[in-house]
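Q: Got a minute? One more chain.
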Amino acid sequence: MAKKTVEQIATDLNLSITTVRLVLNGKAEYYRISVKTQKKIQDYVDKYGYVINHTARSLKLNKTDTLGLVVPNLSNPFFSALAESLELSCRHKGYQLMICCTYNDPNYEIKLTSSLQARNVDGIFIVPANKDTEAKHLSSLDKPLVFLDRNHHQTTSAGVVSDNKGGGYLLTQSMLTKVKNPIVFFAGLETLAPVKERIEGYIQAIKECGDDKQIIVCHAKNDSVSDGELMISEYIEKYNDIPQNFIASSLPILEGVISLLHQRLGYIPEHINIGAFDEHLMLNFLSNNIWSIKQNDKLIAEKALYMMEQKIANNDYQSENIIVPVELVYRLKQPIKLN
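A: Always. Here it is, folded:
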């Protein structure tokens, strides 16, 4: 049997909606509603149950206690971890989180954000495909917006991102203390802000060693496993060798590189030193020396939700961009020879 709404209870008991609502909200005594009426309503609720009419409530308050999250995909471990952390943070604060995936399609991203606005969510978290879609959201959406992961430096945007340039520098510098140049950088789509910033950190660390010729960056059209496979394949064809040291700009790129190596060789050579962005359990099962940059998805979620709540409560909230520190994790399993 379906539970009853306030409106249905009022109709069935021949009472006003206001009277029913006051009793159910525990304000009967303050408004001097008779004990008899209170009992009548309570007996009805005990028998049939009661459910809040969220549609009516949201129309009255212009608030749905629902937020939207738009991410490229959930197959990337970082985005799935971020979505989970944000959902848990939202639940703790009394919000429900609607999660949507764009699959790196800018037009679909714009369609999704428009759909979330039409559903009257209180605010939207967005991992934008590029600078243009971010600008489009800022100009066309009238909901509070908080951008995640990618900082395109729009003057009116508010966002929370990892220290990608610092992470690229820290990762490369740490590897250079143990291995000799060159360290090849297998990058995803260069126009993605995090990839661009990670490359900048990598280049800075290499230049500080005094040898610009050791900068080797391979680019891809996207940030997928197949892009990783394509880049390592092209590298082997060009140099007729496999890289002794390399950095992958994301876990999907790393998965593609090691997958192609395994296909070609039947195994992953243990002497290869690997740098990676983001943490994943699979890294523990590789026998290589691995340096990785761990993003703090929990802190990103916490900061993003706080920013969102401020924007919801105050339309004049001054936009800002928060940069969250990253952590270096390393697994040294093989002896390293500095040739």
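A: The first helix runs from residue 6 to 13.
Q: Perfect, thanks.
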